[in-house]
Amino acid sequence: MGEEREDSQKIKRIAAAAYDYDNDPRWAEYWSNILIPPHMAARSDVVDHYKRKFYQRYIDPDLVVESMSQPTQASASSTSSATANDRPRQRNSANPGSTTSRSSGTSTNAGSNTTSVRWDRQTIQFSVNAWVM
């Protein structure tokens, strides 16, 4: 039964990819109402994701559209250490007084910074998805 569901979703994804978005005026209106940075709008994986969301909304509500964070999970984990190291430096330079009072708890600050990086990513994804809906 699980294979049947996967097969039907695969067929639905193929149909969504083959759909003629350029000749559907609803797509142009839908795409113009998505507020994302221009560098993200130029990425084909981002455009494909929103095309699937459009297809789900207007053509086939049974199509399951996965979140965009899943395909980029491996690249996000490889860069998370670099961004986690960069963020505390930025915060420290912005608030030098607060870092001197917290200098004794640097190990707990590092843990909270990684949590805040994840929260920021989730917040951004939530706001992007909220605009789509």
User: What is the percentage of strand-forming residues?
Assistant: under 5%
* Arithmetic mean of pLDDT: 72
Structural class: mainly alpha
* Shape designation: globular
Q: Tell me the radius of gyration.
A: 20 Å
For the record, give the distance between the C-alpha atoms at the N and C termini, rounded to a whole number: 30 Å
Number of helices: 7
Number of domains: 2
Percentage of residues assigned to helices: over 70%
H-E order: HHHHHHH
Give a quick account of the main beta sheet: strands, pairing sense, barrel closure. none
What is the number of E strands?
0
Low-confidence parts, pLDDT < 50 over ≥5 residues?
A: 70-112
Explained architecture:
The chain has 133 residues and is mainly alpha-helical. The protein folds into two domains: 2-66, no CATH class; 77-130, no CATH class. Helix content is 74%, strand content 0%. The protein is built from seven helices and no strands. The chain has helices spanning 2-18, 25-32, 38-41, 44-58, 73-94, 96-101, 106-132. Helix 5 (73-94) crosses helix 7. The relative contact order is 0.09. Residues 70-112 have low confidence and may be disordered.
Question: Helices and strands in order, then pairings?
Answer:
Layout: H1 2-18, H2 25-32, H3 38-41, H4 44-58, H5 73-94, H6 96-101, H7 106-132
